[in-house]
Amino acid sequence: MEVGGWRSNEMRNSCTTFPKAGSLREGPASRVPPSRKLGAFGKVRPAALVIGGGIAGIQAALDIADAGFPVYLVEREPSVGGRMAQLDKTFPTLDCSACILTPKMVDVGRHPNIELMTYSEVVAVTPPSPPLTGGGERGRFRVQVRRKPRYVDVSKCTGCGSCAAACRMKGRVLNRFDEGIAKRSAIYVPFPQAVPLKYTVDPTACLYLSRGTCGKTFLCKDACAAGAIDFEQQEEMVDLEVGAIIVATGFDLLDARLKPEFGYGVYPEVMTGMEFERLSSASGPTMGKIAVNGKEPKDVVFIKCVGSRERRREQAAPGSVPYCSRVCCMYTAKHAHLVRDKLPDARITVFYMDVRAFGKGYEEFYDRVKHERVMYRRGEPSEVYRRGERGDQGGRLVVLAEDTMLGKPVEVEADLVVLANAVVPRTDMADVAGLLGLERSPDGFFQEAHPKLRPVDTCVDGIFLAGCCQGPKDIPDTVAHAKAAAASALGVLVRHSSSTHSSSTHSSSTHSPGGRPT
Amino acid sequence: MTSQGLLKTEAMVEQLELMGCIQCGKCTGGCPVARKTELNIRSLIYQMLVEPELDVDTHPELWDCTCCFTCVERCPKDVRPADLIIGLRGQLVESGRVPDTIGDALMGIFRQGNPTGIAREDRAAWAKGMEIKAAQEGCEVLFFVGCTPAYDPRVQGVTRALVRAFAAAGLDFGTLGTEESCCGNEVRRMGEAGLFEMLVEENGELIRSVGASRLVAPSPHCFNTFKNEYNLDGIQVLHYTQLVAELIEQGRLKLTQEVKKTVTYHDPCFLGKQNHIFDEPRAVLKAIPGLKLVEMDRSRERSLCCEGGGGRMWAEGTNLQERLAFQRVREAAETGAEILAVACPFCLLTLEDAVKVQGLDHSLQVMDIMELVDLALG
Question: How far is B272 from chain A (nearest CA, A)?
């Protein structure tokens, strides 16, 4: 299958960019002719496959690429970035999430050792043949990747956005990146800092692709000066051979509708933590203005452990997971701080069962937030309802809880209720596990080889885990996990290079022990 | 204080697995009664956990619990807080230290098979003039009437409406007549475990002997215990709204007359929260031509208890002033509905009383769903 053409455009971009000091510039990729059946890196040196382009996948890919090995980074969405790209600030340092993430996104986009395959999915993986038998390179996985059609020729698209401005569906399609708070066109980039900054047609929203007709003329095509829009584009299958795979497929968030007592989906004033991130983000749909129904909230209530830490006899009970989601205590403290920062007069209440502030600088951050007039009340709320007349002018929401310190039931009125809904395994975990031959732990996440001593290994040699696909993690833990996965993958790749390519002067010279590739 | 009420806590802590409680307070936070009385189930669990003995006599609020099971539904650790209340009531029942009215109800059930104490022979009086097959002759659906639908003059009309609908649909059904006894759902929740076991044995044997494949009950309370606490050898247990919704869906029951009313529906705790039947009652209402269904803010899983369960039909509780039913009918009135529809005999009685006391009877009428279906049948 011809795939080099598409790839080479991304690569061409990267090669014309001035290289970063200290990183590898002369990778094998640039020597490979752009058109070949296999993925661009071919067999010159064993490559790694990273599945998932969130912060875990980005970090793992950069570490492996910086060490001189080629990496295919496959991301299902049109852009890398993942969940971290959606966040406003990060605890406990309050760095702007996009500000620390975007440089890394740009790096993976132009690294000569990384072939970025966005809007793509791994559809088949064949494990290595047993040693000394035929078929393929010894110790390598054969991988098939499906590149979904963007209906945009990325070699022509300049990312100018004229198409989206012209689209008949403009402002009518829910933007998932903004958690549905804002609306976009059928042709879109998920967010302005997207990498690659190339437009994609959403086939379910596009009138032409979903209904077969879009007025008399394609407004997007007419608007595109580069002539990049191509509704004839087909999906492509790409075959790769890799020596190691890093799984960094991330997590989902519990559908808060499964906790009907809190009225999520019923009341516009009840939102999830991730929705609050978009609301609070300066680059979000409200430019960071915290407003509900167009008004600044006076009373804000945070509810932690929504669906987490629930041990239910009915194992199938939807809406509950038995484990602690690990990030909610700290992001709720951060949210409370952000509200205080923007709304100095708001009354802020955090309902909690326990406060788990275990990381570096975390307890100190919790202390700080408490001193910012954030009222922590012990008790897990039981219900949210609206008291009095309905509508904008009428009744306010009431959070029912027991303040267990008082030993009394309390009713706290609220204009905004933020639910810290549980971190849950992705819905397609079973498919991915089947594809790769991975096992899952009872909580539904991927099972590591040993809970303490082999935290990134799996039951399959050569496949490693990074980030929240193994269990809930905050950003520092995710990055640490990803770097560990990269180091383990590099171990495999180095072994492969020295055994299968010992005659290759290239490999042996670039991978002398302890030496940095030159 | 007498030492009579001292309960050693250890055995019950173990039996009810209270050690799993993390004292989050979600039980008491959602308890509709905790807002108006001293009842604090989270605190009671804590006392059970840390004290060797609990003086049950100092907790008259134990009789306030309606067994709505909001606490059980929402407990993140599956502790089943209401089971502790039932267990503690059991201690009081065993030594006869119960409110007089509860004692009377239990005695009535023991002697006459119903909590009113009216003669067993009168149990089928509601059906006078109606031709209803004796289930003992064999039938497809056993119609288990229940005490309140059989004896309460207000509820009897609902029972008769249900029979008319079954007949109109050509359903092969029968009743147990005067052989039927209280299902025991409330008995168990009042803490009288021994009497409950006896009723399960008697009723269970009688029900199984009929050979019906399905059992339908008008009361969510009967329905709950038959479904979850009896072992009925695979007999399918239904609440009447499930069966009526099915008959409408199958086209066997045709609702032809318009009922031009705005109606709101109150989810009974034993049907909704505890058995997750939310859609069928609404499906029946929506099938009535001309009827407009509006929802209260607190509906489905968040429905507010009417305070009629757990023995509260026979005990006033420690707070006579603020009744949840008062609040509930005000919420119903706020929707602009003319009719507050219910699907439970206890809800019908408590809410109808509340409508009168709140002076809403000129604008809001409480009706069972079957009474509306009856109108639609013409």
Answer: 13
User: Measured between CB atoms, does B300 come within 8 Å of chain A?
Assistant: yes
B35 close to A (CB below 8 A): yes
Amino acid at A429: M
Task: Answer yes or no: are the C-beta atoms of A200 and A189 closer than 8 Å.
Answer: yes
* Contact list, A380 vs chain B (CB under 8 Å): 24-26, 29, 76
CB contact under 8 A, B297 and A381: no
Based on the fold, state whether residues A287 and A241 are members of the same structural domain: no
For the stretch B143-172, pLDDT in tens is 999 999 999 999 999 999 999 999 999 999
Number of domains in chain A: 3
The helix (run of H) or strand (run of E) holding residue A424 is: strand A423-424
Residue A188 sits in which domain range? 162-223
To test the contact with chain A by mutation, choose from B18, B19, B24, B40 the residue with the greatest count of A C-beta atoms within 10 A, namely B24
Q: Tell me, yes or no, whether A25 lies in a domain.
A: no
Give me the residues paired with residue A70 across strands: none
Taking chain B, what is the end-to-end CA distance rounded to the nearest angstrom?
61
Per DSSP, what are the bridge partners of residue A409? Answer: A402
The residue ranges of every structural domain in chain B are 3-94, 100-247, 254-377
Selected residue of A261, A264, A301, A308 to mutate for chain B interface (largest B Cβ count, 10 A) = A261
SS3 A420: strand
Residues A171 and A319 in one domain: no
User: Domain B100-247 adopts which CATH fold?
Assistant: Rossmann fold (3.40.50)
Angle ∠(A423,A424,A430) on CA atoms, nearest 5: 155
Question: Based on the domain organization, do A333 and A288 belong to the same domain?
Answer: yes
pTM for the structure as a whole: 0.91
Minimal C-alpha gap between B3 and chain A (Å): 26
**In terms of pLDDT, which residue wins out, A367 or B5?**
A367
Does CATH place domain B254-377 in 3.40.50.10700?
yes
- Contacts with B27 from chain A: Cβ below 8 Å: 382, 402
Burial of residue A389, with CB atoms counted within 10 A of its CB: 0-12 exposed, 13-18 middle, 19 or more buried: exposed
- pLDDT > 90 in chain B, percent: 96
| A414 and A433 co-located in one domain | no
The angle formed by the CA atoms of residues B192, B195 and B201, to the nearest 5 degrees, is: 140
- Specify whether A101 is located in the same domain as A206: no
Closest residue, chain B, to A351 (C-alpha) = B24
pLDDT at B362 over 50: yes
pLDDT digits (tens, 9 = 90+) for A8-60: 344 434 333 333 333 333 333 433 333 334 555 655 579 999 999 999 999 99
Give which of B26, B68, B73 to mutate to test A binding, by max A Cβ within 10 Å: B26
Quote the mean pLDDT of chain A. 87
Residue-level length of chain B: 378
**Was domain B3-94 assigned CATH 1.20.1560.10?**
no
- Same fold across B3-94 and B100-247: no
Cross-chain Cβ contact B29/A380 below 8 Å: yes
